[in-house]
Each structure stands twice: as structure tokens, then as C-alpha cells.
Design brief:
Blueprint: E1 29-40, E2 43-55, E3 60-64, H1 71-78, E4 86-91, E5 94-95, H2 101-111, E6 112-115, H3 127-132, H4 143-153, H5 169-181, E7 187-191, H6 199-214, E8 218-223, H7 226-231, E9 234-239, E10 242-243
Parallel strand pairs: 3-8, 3-9, 6-7, 7-8
Antiparallel strand pairs: 1-2, 1-4, 4-5, 9-10
The structure holds adenosine-5'-diphosphate and magnesium ion.
Length: about 240
């Protein structure tokens, strides 16, 4: 697959090509002309409107906007949890527009890690079990070791056997981050990652994101927290579903 001609100016790359990011690297995740509408109460809600968005390896992008501006929808469309009504999506340079459900699940598992709003940990499982959960159906025996290593790296090496009720908000978020990294994704997608945390704890999570980016994994965080934008390489704004 070849990238677009840099001399092409504003011309949109043809379908199947991969736009170069500013660094020249192939984007880990990309939306082209993505519109998402929902039918709701007899009317149509435009949640995303002709969004073009690309993220380079190791880049930390904050997506800000008020409540209802389309942030969660954008994250779900980026991570293949929701389908666009129009437009194309690429993961690791691969056009994923026409994939079957099964192919999409595979692509998502390999390329994307999700940090959901409000942690989404299983309350009856330990930290270690929560982190290995995404590997449940194709265990290679190394998942436990990798989960221990990830929990160690996020400072929870001594909390492996703790269930979420014995962890603070910041610690739960660290477990959620370790879980998102278990399958070695190219990009981590986080929905309001500091939303439930005080400023000091939020800061430690954002420092964690910077370390993750330094290791070459991109982070996209949708948020209305200004603190996130201080740590991001780049901030884009959603206004009524359109990217500014
Ligand atoms: P944000 O995360 O920025 O608060 P969302 O992406 O959740 O915004 O929502 C964007 C818009 O799309 C809102 O108007 C919301 O009501 C609407 N929306 C989101 N999901 C659905 C859905 N499943 N059905 C109908 N409307 C939805
Ligand atoms: Mg939201």
C-alpha cells in the first residue's frame, strides 16, 4: 500500500490509500469523511459529521467538546464498537470498512485497547484476572506473565489479588489501562479517563499515558477535562459532531 503524494495538496487520498501523518508515519487509526447518525424519537441525530482524523504511532491526542458533542461516538467508531453511517475507517493502515463482524472483532482485538468510562472492571475478579480477561479465549500461557508485568509497570505489582472494591479510583483506572494493553494494541482509546478522579490522581494517569506513548503506543482520550489537554501532544475539538 502506498501513501498519498505529498504534493497532492488538499486533494483527498483515494480510497485504499493511507494518509501520511505529520511525522510521515502510517496512522495507527484513521477516520475519513465519517458521519454517524442515529434515528431517535422519530428524528435523526447527527452524532458525527464528516470527521477526518488520523493518529500517529506514539501520539497522545485529546478530543474535547461539551456533553453531547459526539466524543463517545467518535471513540466507539474509532475502536470498531460502532459503525459509521458514511465514510471509511482504517486500523494500522488497513481499510476495515467492509469487514464482517468476525473480522472486525479480530481487527479490534489486535489493534485497539479500550479504557472505558467508569473503569468497567468485573467486581468479582482480582486485578490480575481483570487484566487477563481479554485473553480468555486465546490463551497462550504467557498472558499471566504479561498481565503481572503490566500491573507492575502501572505500580500495582503488590495488588494483583485485590478485587476492585479494595482498590482506589486511580488504582482501578490503572487496572483498566493494563487490561487495555494486554493484547499489545497500537492505540489505546480512553473515554473520560480522568472523569472520576481528583486532580492529583488524574495527573498520575496522564503521566501513565505519556509513558505508554513513549513506548510507541498512541493514546486518544475524549474528555472535557482541561488537564488532559495539558498532557496531550495535540488537542482537537468536537462541536456538534464536527471536528475543529
Ligand atoms: P458525548 O460523549 O460528547 O457526550 P455522545 O457521542 O455520547 O456525546 O452523543 C452524541 C450525540 O448522539 C448526542 O446527541 C446523543 O444524544 C446522541 N446519541 C449517542 N448515542 C446514541 C444512540 N445510541 N441513539 C440515539 N442517539 C444517540
Ligand atoms: Mg461521552
Amino acid at each position: 500500500m502506498t501513501g498519498p503524494d505529498p504534493a497532492d495538496g488538499a486533494a483527498r487520498p483515494e480510497r485504499g490509500a493511507t494518509a501520511a501523518t505529520a511525522s510521515g508515519a502510517r496512522p495507527v487509526v484513521e477516520l475519513r469523511g465519517v458521519t454517524k447518525t442515529y434515528e431517535s424519537g422519530g428524528g435523526t441525530v447527527v452524532a458525527l459529521s464528516e470527521v477526518d482524523f488520523a493518529v500517529a504511532p506514539g501520539e497522545f491526542v485529546a478530543v474535547v467538546g461539551p456533553s453531547g458533542s459526539g466524543k463517545s461516538t467518535m471513540l466507539n467508531v474509532l475502536g470498531l464498537l460502532d459503525a459509521p453511517s458514511e465514510g471509511d475507517r482504517y486500523l494500522a493502515g488497513r481499510d476495515v470498512t467492509g469487514l464482517t463482524d468476525a473480522e472486525r472483532t479480530d481487527a479490534r482485538k489486535d489493534a485497539v485497547g479500550f479504557v472505558f468510562q467508569d473503569y468497567h472492571l468485573i467486581p468479582t475478579l482480582t486485578a490480575l484476572e481483570n487484566v487477563t480477561l481479554p485473553t480468555l479465549f486465546d490463551r497462550d500461557g504467557a498472558a499471566d506473565d504479561r498481565a503481572r508485568d503490566l500491573l507492575d509497570r502501572v505500580g500495582l505489582g503488590d495488588r494483583l489479588d485485590h478485587t476492585p472494591d479494595r482498590l482506589s479510583g486511580g488504582q482501578k483506572q490503572r487496572v483498566a489501562i493494563a487490561r487495555a494493553l494486554i493484547n499489545r494494541p497500537g492505540v489505546l482509546l480512553a473515554d473520560e479517563p480522568t472523569g472520576n478522579l481528583d486532580r492529583a490522581t488524574g495527573t498520575t494517569i496522564l503521566e501513565e499515558f505519556r509513558r505508554i506513548c513513549a513506548a510507541g503506543v498512541a493514546v486518544v482520550a475524549v474528555t472535557h477535562d482541561d488537564l488532559v489537554t495539558e498532557y496531550a501532544d495535540r488537542t482537537v475539538e468536537l462541536v456538534d459532531g464536527a471536528l475543529r
